[in-house]
Structure formats: C-alpha cells, structure tokens
Amino acid sequence: MPSPAHRRFHEIATDLSPALTSYLRRFTGDPTLAEDLLQETLVRMEKGLWRFEGRSSLKTWAFTIAAHVAADHFRAPENSMDIVDIDTTSELADLDPSIHERLVVSEMNACVRQVIDSLPCDFRTALVLHDLEGMSAKEVASICGCSLATAKIRIHRARARLKKRLERKCDFQHDDGVLRCDLKTSPSLPRIAPDI
Fold this sequence. Notes:
Blueprint: H1 4-28, H2 31-48, H3 58-75, H4 97-118, H5 121-132, H6 137-144, H7 148-169, E1 170-175, E2 178-183
Antiparallel strand pairs: 1-2
Helix pairs in contact: 1-2, 1-3, 2-3, 3-6, 5-6, 5-7, 6-7
C-alpha cells in the first residue's frame, strides 16, 4: 500500500506534469528531451517534497526544479545545441500549396526556435515562462530565484534580443494576410553573454 507521502507526490505529479511538460517542450524544442527532463524533474520533486515548506506555491516550486533541470542539462558540454542550416527553398517550388504552407510555417518555427535557443539560459527561461507559459513576472522571479526587477529586465531584454535577431536574420512580409519570413543569412548564431 502506498504511503501518504507517495500518494501526495503522485497527486502533485499528476496535476503538474502536463504544465511542466509544456514548459520543457517549449524550452528545449525537443519532445523526447522534454520527456527525459520531466522524469528528472519528477525524481527531484519526489526526493525534495519532504523539504517543501510552502513558502511558494507547489507549482512555482515544481517549475523552479524544472528550470534548474533544464539549465543543468544545457550547461553540460556534451549537450550544447547543434544548429542546423536548413535551406530547402529550391526544393519547394513544385510542392502542393498546403504542403508548401506547412513547410513555410515549420521553417519559421524552426527559425524562431533557433533564436530562442541562442538566448542566454536566464533570458530563455524568463521568456518561455512569461511569454509562452503565461506566468507573471512575479512567478518568473520566484522560479528563477531572482528579484522581480531582475525578472522584468530579463523578460524585456530577451524580447529585445529576440526581435533584434529576427529582424537581422529574416525578411518579413505579409502575403495574403499571412506573415512569412525568409532567411537573410546563415542561421548559425553565436551565443550572447547575459547583460546581468
């Protein structure tokens, strides 16, 4: 028979796993890696649940662990990201328009993903939590272990860098009400050191 602590962990894991999975997928851009990081997050949560003192919400505590797990993963030299140049425009000329549309959207998503991946880890974490997961700046600050002002600065600077890099990297145009972009140059972007 499961212990009360095990039942509590199981309830928490069941409740928070979908949100944690969503965050980790957006942070990594890789569903398989996100699942691996979720498992590590759940292991750490189970080990640390007895120390949880309720100074934050369980959700904030769990996202803090997930953010650390993801950051630890990408800090490891063997896990540095490989950015692949995809230039298939010459192969798209004869494709079915719906397939072409999906490829264009997929290419745009990959482009944005590369830019997000090139952000410093602190900026990427703040941007994903705030702009993609819909968390408040206060929640981001709590998860990242920084002040509210620092969280706001990271979100602002991450957005600014994202915008600047996309403008430098892509030509945007509206075509029949659909936003499209074409790569200007090689998508390989050097990582930028954090400002704070």
